[in-house]
Amino acid sequence: MPRTRPLPFTGASRQLEALGDRLRLARKRRRISAVLMAERVGISRDTLHRVEKGDATVSLGTYLRVLRVLGLDADLDRLAAEDTLGRKLQDLALEPGADTRARR
Fold this sequence. Notes:
The protein is mainly α.
């Protein structure tokens, strides 16, 4: 039986498409052909085309390798760096009396 994959959320699809566009433009600005880029990343030209279309079935590792070849992999360090909501939730749990409120 074939494996089914969940469809990405609509917003995520748009974000991936926009990322793919940015990656394609970054490759073109560097004057790297699709064939050479695919070779440097270690993927097929078909897979590179799917990355540049924002295909959600392509692994995150492949996207990371494309970013690395383009010299943009440091941008990943900024993803989820500021967890404002998580910090607020953590602070609320640390407030005096938070344990007694949670038990009620």
